[in-house]
Each structure stands twice: as structure tokens, then as C-alpha cells.
């Protein structure tokens, strides 16, 4: 597949997702929207990454308007769409759901639990019932009409959803690797207000053994989704 990745900032890279795609024979094309809003016309599947902005920040990031038009067309195309964090929120909005600021930040390694419905899901079925996922967000979304809720957490009930066989979205960050995590913690953690679901830098960096488990889950999901 020719997989188009929409990147919203220099540090929100496809990371582990991009490596898996290339190692498994897919062609990865990265569109850096923060540099240019121009998008390739030829693509087979789409990955929408996270970002430090919100879906409602069009005044500060005018290219969001063009991206939303593009995503509305992408939803109608029936092609494979995978959303990560901001990408999940953008997909939720394109599907008619509300996206809004949550009551607090969720940041760090927090437990995510798959729903009962997810047990027989074609993409996430047969995975461990719960695991520690890496979170970094303060916004959330309502579940789009017709979507299946796949995962939840104590802080935020909507952590993952699927719509049909071609749209998959995760609020958490399964793509992070050691370099991305260290960069975020060193350069952006101080900007986040302390809260009950915000871990300290040492807590985050001392739990990097969880990354291998998260990436194993990611690889299993990607191998089922990108077929």
C-alpha cells in the first residue's frame, strides 16, 4: 500500500508506525502540514498523527481547514484511515462527533482496557485485556454515531473506536519510541499543568519497559488493519 501520513508538528512523527509500514513492504509518504498544506492525490491508506494543537485551533493553524476538507473526502472514500490522538479527534469530528477540552490532562503510562465488544473485533481481538498505554492529551471526543467503542481508561472513557472495517482511531500514542518519548518529556512536559493523571518525568522514563509491550500490541493491530 501507498500510505499517506499526515504530520502536524516536527516532533509528532509516525515513529514505530512508520517503521512497521516500511518493514512490511508498504510505501510511506509523510505530508508535513505544518510546512505545507499540499497533499498528494494518490494514496491507498491514511495515518493521521497527533499534534500539540486542538481540532478547534484553525485561527492559529489555518491549514487545519484544508485538512478537515481532505478528511471529509477521505472518510467518504472507503479507504483505510488510522487516527492517533489528535488524528483520532479529527476523525471523530469528520464523522460528526463533538471534540472538546477534557476536565484534565492524561499524560504518562496509564492503563487502557479493551471493551467486551473488542474481544471479537477483527483488529484488536485476542489481545491482552488491559495494558499500560502512553497518553498525552487534554482533549477528548464523543463516540461517533455507528462507531464501536474498543477501549477505555479511568480518566477518559473513549480511548479507541472503529467504524466499519476501514476506520480505526486511538486516543493514546502507540507509535512512541525511545527518541520520541525522551524528546517530549525533555521539551514539553514542563508546559503541562500538574494533575492527578499527569506523571512526573522520572515516572515516565522509568517505565520504558512498557514500550516493548505497547509496540508488540501495535504491530499485531497494524498487521490486521493494513491488509
Can you describe what's shown?
With 227 residues, this protein is an alpha/beta fold. The chain has a single domain, classed as 3-Layer(aba) Sandwich (Rossmann fold). Helix content is 29%, strand content 27%. Strands 2-1-3-4-9-8-7-5-6 form a 9-stranded mixed beta sheet, sandwiched between helices. The relative contact order is 0.17. The mean pLDDT is 97.
Keywords, please?
about 30% helix; single chain; 9-stranded mixed β-sheet; 9 strands; alpha/beta; Rossmann fold
Which stretches are low in confidence, meaning pLDDT under 50 for 5 or more residues running?
Answer: none
Briefly note the CATH topology name.
Answer: Rossmann fold
User: Distance N terminus to C terminus?
Assistant: 9 Å
CATH architecture: 3-Layer(aba) Sandwich
Beta fraction: 25-35%
CATH-defined superfamily: Class I glutamine amidotransferase (GATase) domain
CATH class: Alpha Beta
